[in-house]
């Protein structure tokens, strides 16, 4: 009995010694990565064993400053930290405001090594908890496309009266939705309408560890440009140019007319679209957390949560 106790004590001592010599750094990284998650996500992870989820420990530390230094300074806005172009002549096609009715069409189009980014909402054209939204987002994720946050309700963060409480709610509800339905929490964020004050962008970057992705080229679909005009834009692209392109998956013509023509234009140049994280040269996971998606329950709803464009 005494002997067993001593052994147990000794084992405990050895484990403690190993812990002390190798993990303060790791513990600090975990703490930092955890602190960048919304409270709802932190609460859920606390119910899991550590082996059941993967925290991205490097993304919190991957120095965006270094990424920027290696880039043309015109690619990242100094005041807001928002990226407005791709490094290394990359081309990155993105689709905002989904998941929506044409998502499956888009996924059928962007094959053959092209990877695109979906800046998704929780409650915009359709509720993100609807079965069709969930399956569209899951299929995109499985195919290696990027899922990024476009806020819960497509809120205009540039408007007067945008408090930290409003920002926190818009961030948290989307993180909760992607965690439950997809088993991920995004690290990439695009402001609806591209509308924000630099202070808001810095708040989101610092508090939540988000990287802010804007665009260099606008297909013009949200301001009413005809498909022919958007297609002409893609046809002007030349090999060796960078393009970070804004499109919306909620317009039928953007999906059924422009997207196939865009893919054809890139194929003709021998250029593959890359996801937004690759566009800025990041090498770590584009998700703050990865785990298993949860099972549908009564919390999978947009009821009682902010309506599109609404603060509360
Ligand atoms: Zn949008």
Structure description:
This protein has 312 residues and is α/β, with parallel strands linked by helices. It has one domain (62-291): TIM Barrel (Alpha-Beta Barrel). The protein is built from 11 helices and 10 strands. The chain has a 5-stranded parallel beta sheet with strand order 4-3-2-9-8. α9 links the parallel β8 and β9. α5 (103-109) packs parallel to α10 (252-269) and α9 packs parallel to α10 (252-269). The N and C termini lie far apart (62 Å). Residues 96-97, 150, 154, 192 line the site of zinc ion. The site of zinc ion (ZN) has 5 residues, from β2.
Topology:
Layout: H1 2-22, H2 24-35, H3 39-46, E1 53-55, H4 64-69, E2 91-98, H5 103-109, E3 117-120, H6 131-142, E4 146-149, H7 164-182, E5 184-186, E6 188-189, H8 198-208, E7 211-212, E8 217-218, H9 227-235, E9 243-248, H10 252-269, H11 276-279, E10 287-291
Parallel strand pairs: 2-3, 2-9, 3-4, 6-7, 8-9
Antiparallel strand pairs: 1-10, 5-10
The structure holds zinc ion (ZN).
Region (Disordered): 288-312
Protein name: Glycoside hydrolase/deacetylase
Cofactor: Co(2+)
């Amino acid at each position: 009995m005494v002997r067993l106790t001593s052994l147990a004590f000794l084992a405990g001592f050895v484990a403690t010694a190993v812990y002390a010599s190798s993990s303060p750094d790791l513990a600090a990284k975990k703490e930092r990565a955890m602190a960048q998650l919304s409270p709802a996500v932190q609460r859920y992870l606390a119910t899991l064993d550590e082996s059941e989820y993967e925290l991205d420990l490097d993304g919190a530390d991957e120095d965006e400053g270094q990424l920027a230094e290696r880039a043309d300074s015109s690619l990242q806005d100094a005041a807001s930290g928002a990226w407005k172009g791709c490094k290394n002549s990359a081309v990155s096609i993105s689709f905002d405001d989904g998941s929506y009715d044409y998502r499956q069409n888009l996924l059928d189009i962007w094959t053959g090594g092209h990877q695109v980014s979906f800046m998704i909402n929780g409650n915009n054209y359709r509720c993100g908890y609807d079965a069709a939204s969930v399956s569209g987002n899951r299929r995109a994720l499985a195919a290696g496309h990027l899922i990024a946050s476009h806020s819960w309700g497509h809120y205009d963060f540039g408007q007067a009266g945008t408090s930290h409480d409003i920002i926190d709610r818009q961030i948290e509800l989307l993180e909760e939705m992607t965690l439950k339905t997809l088993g991920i929490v995004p690290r990439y964020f695009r402001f609806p309408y591209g509308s924000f004050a630099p202070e808001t962008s810095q708040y989101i970057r610092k508090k939540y560890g988000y990287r802010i992705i804007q665009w260099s080229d606008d297909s013009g679909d949200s301001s009413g440009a005809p498909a022919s005009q958007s297609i002409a834009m893609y046809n002007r692209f030349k090999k060796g140019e960078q393009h970070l392109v804004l499109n919306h998956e909620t317009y039928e013509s953007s999906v059924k007319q422009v997207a196939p023509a865009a893919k054809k234009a890139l194929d003709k140049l021998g250029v593959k679209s890359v996801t937004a994280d690759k566009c800025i040269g990041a090498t770590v996971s584009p998700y703050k957390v990865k785990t298993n998606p949860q099972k549908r329950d009564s919390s999978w709803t947009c009821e009682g949560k902010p309506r599109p464009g609404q603060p509360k």
